[in-house]
Every structure is written in structure tokens, then in C-alpha cells.
Write a structure and sequence with these properties.
The complex is a heterodimer of chains A (298) and B (346).
Chain A lengths: L1 H7 L6 H16 L1 H18 L1 H4 L31 H37 L1 H16 L2 H12 L3 H28 L2 H9 L3 H37 L11 H6 L1 H4 L6 H27 L8
Chain B lengths: L7 E16 L5 E17 L3 E5 L6 H8 L7 E6 L2 E2 L5 H8 L2 E4 L13 H11 L6 H14 L16 H13 L5 E5 L7 H18 L2 E6 L2 H7 L2 E6 L2 E7 H6 L4 H8 L6 H6 L40 E3 L2 E3 L9 H7 L7
Parallel strand pairs in B: 3-8, 3-9, 6-7, 7-8
Antiparallel strand pairs in B: 1-2, 1-4, 4-5, 9-10, 10-12, 11-12
Helix pairs in contact in B: 3-4, 3-5, 4-5
The chains are: A mainly alpha (298), B alpha/beta (346).
Amino acid sequence: MTTVAAAGTDPLPGRGESRWRRFVVRLFRTKPLGAAGAVVFVIFLLSGIFAGVLAPYGINETDLAHRLEPPSTEFLLGTDHLGRDLFSRVLMGARLSMIVGFCAAALATVVSIVIGVLSGYLGGWFDMLTQRLVDAWMTFPDLVLLIVVVSVVGPGITQIVIILGLLYGIAGSRIVRGAVTSVREHVYTHAAQSIGAGTFHILRRHILPNVMPVVIVLFTTRVGAVILSEAALSFLGLGVPPPAPTWGGMLSGDGRTYLYLGPWLALAPGVCLTVVVYSANVFGDALRDLLDPRMRGT
Amino acid sequence: MSSAANRVLLRVEDLKVHFPVTEGVLMRRRTGSIKAVDGVSFDLRRGETFGLVGESGCGKSTTALAILRMLEPTAGRIVFDGEDISEASQSRLRPLRRRMQMVFQDPFGSLNPRMRVREIVGEPLKVHRVAGSRRRFRERVAELLDLVGLLPSMANRYPHQFSGGQRQRIGIARALALEPDLLICDEAVSALDVSIQAQVLNLLMDLQAKLGLTYLFIAHDLSVVRHISDRVGVMYLGRIVEIATRDELFERPRHPYTEALLASVPTPDPVVEAARAHHLIAGEVPSVRNPPSGCRFHPRCSKALDRCDRVEPLLEAVGPARVACHLYPDSSPAAAGAGQAGDQVV
């Protein structure tokens, strides 16, 4: 208590920095699981970024003398049917999957916030119209929509990010809108209106901070969902085009084909996928709790 | 009170707030309306406390929200300090909002849980861009907290770290930030414990003496209203049935509804309580969607006359009070005296 109070009265210059440090300390102290999630996530992110340096072999370097070899010291995660080193491919896959997962989930969240907040707060005709459009959008089966769009514009990482972002964003706007309509009716929102606050001020200071818990959870679950969707697309041959390695592609391509001969082919990307999605989720939950002042000790 | 201080700050004339009742999903059609407030008129004099009492659902809060233009009035005039604001645009209303502030009922819901007390109390200053420098802003918030009996060092805390009474003080500090003329207290103490109620009421009275505030004090608790008000208006089903000074109203209630309302307050002495005649009001409050014809109170009134179900009584002067009741055919003191004879027990 006294140390916290003392930290609060620190001289101004290092304020932003100390606030960050205090946040990280709190994360590790009160939410060890969430902190572990963050660490794992960062490790994957870094290994994706530095895949070029870390990978012992080239991702498309074939070695026909070592086909479908189980994990060994030479090939840490074994090799596939073309003799490509799986470890190198999984590292590179981390880059692609993280880019797709992160960017598409971020886009989806922004889309959800914009549609959900405006529709939920403004209400009336605007809400009615927007929600019917969202209804119409949601009646299309996701996969059919994806297949149609990808076949028209062709596969590629940008298209996939945009399509998945819009798809999940529009569907997720419902959840944000629901949260907004409940926050809108809180007395503190009315209090702000009675003060004479404008719409923008109310949205920024009252509505957004109070729908943040929903938004954070939405984002972290979306990261996992998007990576899995990309896997589904790759399975249909509409994902990021081969030979670029994505976890989804590895899982649904070679992993499935050689499941009996080389189970490590499916296991490696599968485990990575699971771990990343899980760590994103626990980190998101921890973040949600830490950002709530009510969960803070006095 | 001097005559200058008696100037009218707020005049409400024949205020009506009706909510449409619609049916159908695609083809919405109006099938009726909820007449939450249906012809309410009263004056608020500068520096006084006007109590508005009535049962739940009688339109007290709706009246307050319409005065602040947070609900659009269906008809009627709201004149604030000589300016008709019933039709004013939101942008014209903005500067006036500085002069009318509201204290809300629920001390738990009215403060944003994610803002620090400093941000909450200082929010009106920021919204109206009168915050000034960072230092000036902090000083002003500290002043406000001190004014409502909180420690300035509490500014860094979050609302959940306070008790109900303290939170209500924070709400009052926020309402005072812009130095308003009029403070609308909508059930401002009814969510608090009785002991805390007294503290907050005394705080409000001190602030009024110190800052020359005018209060519109809405409550359903008669003892609270009696404690704080100079004048009292009694509402029933969207209309005011009686307006009088506090002493006049509590000692000589004229409208049968007022009488019944006062009689419903239990006496803390069991002997007196047992011996006391109870005026029970029969039946339930009728629906505001379909209010009774004539006097809205007539189906439950023990003294209803023939014409009560046909002719709607107007608010007219009866002695020093203003009453809407057919028992007082004219304002002569004799008639007023005859009307209220008999049943007076306490």
C-alpha cells in the first residue's frame, strides 16, 4: 500500500514509463497465467519475426534423402514428404499465421466497434437499418462468402485479412452493440448528457471504456478463430497459396495426408496453433481484469 | 426573504410529456399514449427549495427530465430565468446546462466505474472548457471535494472505493462544478440509509445557504421533503393536485389525496399510532395509459362528489394554497374550512 502510494507520487518525467512498468508488475503478480500467456505469445511473435534467422533450413529446401523423417537432432520436428524441415516451416508459419490472425482480428475489432457503437448509441432509424444489413450479411454462410470472394479476387494474404476482418467484424458488431445499449442506459451516461456533454465525448469517455471488457475478449477469441478460418481456407486451397507455409495449410495439407506415416506433420503446427490461441485468450482475460479499476486492490 | 430573492428562476407552464404506445413491427401505428406528465405548472423562486412528492410512477422524475430537456416535452412551456427553453435547440441549450444540474438517485450507477473521482467531478469543467490549466483544474476539484465534505486526497480513487453516502457527495460535487443556479435532486437521498440521508440533507441545506442555490427536490419520502422544502407540490398521475408552503401543507392538507398521503406516514409512538384514524386509499393507482375521467383521484377518493368523474378540477387558490379539487368550489376561506373539517385527526 505505502509503496504503491509512493510510486503514485513519483516525479513527473518518468510517469508514462513507470505506469507501464507498474502494469507489467501487476500482470505478473496478480495474473500469473495471463502473464505466461503473454510471454508465450511474445515468443511466438518474435520467432515469427526472426524466422529467417532462426530457421536452420530454407522453407522450400527439399532433401529427398530425408523424407518423412521423425523428429531428430538434425531435424528438430522431423521432415515432410518432400524432405523439407518442419521446424523451419513451423517458424515461418508463425509469421504468416500471426500476421493473418493479428491483422484480421484487429480489423474485425475495429469494424465491430465502429458499427456496434454507432448503431447501439445512436439507435433509432440508423440502428434499425444497420442491424437489418448486418442480419442480411450474417445469413450468408461464412465459407461460401469466403470461397466466392477468394475465387474472384484470387488468394493472397491481403485479401484474406480483409475478408476475414470484415466477416468477423460485422458479425461481432452485434456483441458490441448489445454491450453499448446496456451501457447507454446507465445513469452515468445520463449524468454526462445532463452536464451537456456531446455525443463524441460520451462515446469516448463513457461508452467505450465500459464496453472494453467485451471488446478485449472479442479480440482475443477472434485471433484464434481467424487463424482457424485461414486453416479452413487453406484446406480448400483458397488460403495463403502454397508453398508458403501457414499452420492451417500444413495441418490440412500434408498433415492430413500423411497422418499415419508422419503424425508429427500434423502435431507440430496443431500444437503451435493451440498454444497461441490459448495464450492469446488467457492474456486477454487477464487484460480485461487488470483494466477494470474495481479489480484493483486499494 | 427579500422581494429580489423571490424572483422566479424557473417557471413550468402546463408541461406535458406523453410517450407514444405503438403496436406492430413493420407498420408501427400509434395505439395510445402514456401521459406521464399531463399539465404540470409551478414556479420555482430563486433560493428556495421546492419539493415534489407523489407515489412511484406519478411523473415526478419525468417532470425533472423534461425540465432539463433530456426528454422532449410534448407540450407546455419551460421558462428558465426569463428564457423559454422548451423549444430551444441542443446547441442553444448547452450554455444553459451549466446553470441547471442534476443529482441522481442511484449513487452506485451515476458514477462511471472506470473514471477516477477527479475525472468525474471535473468532467463538467472539461465538457464546458472551463477547466483551465492542469493545476487550476486540480485545485478546483479539490475545492469541490472539500465543499461536499470529502478529502481532496480522495480525488485519485475510483467510485467503488466509496460508500453510498460518499458517492452521493461525489455526485453533488460534480453537479456543483459549474456553479449552477438550479439543482434538481431526483430522489437524491432515497437510496441511502436513514442516518446518511440526514447527513446528505444537511449538506444540501448548508450548500444552499452558502451558494444561494435553488433546489427542485423530488422525493417520495414525506419526512425528507418536510425537512428540506420551503414549498411542496403533490403529484398524482401526472398532475399536481396541491401546492402549498411546507407548513401549510403538512398542517392543513386540503386535497383528499394529500391528506391520505400524510396519514399514511406511521407515527413512531405505538399508542398514538393505534388510536390514530387511518385514511386508507382504496384500490390501486390507475394506469396512466387510461387515466380516470374528471378528477383522476375520484375512483379512490372517500369524498368524491357527483361531478368529480366528469369535470376535471383546476388548480385554484384555496386560502394560501393552490388545490385542484371540487371540494373547494371557490377560494373563500369559509368554503375551504368546511371542506377540510371533520376528518382532521392529527
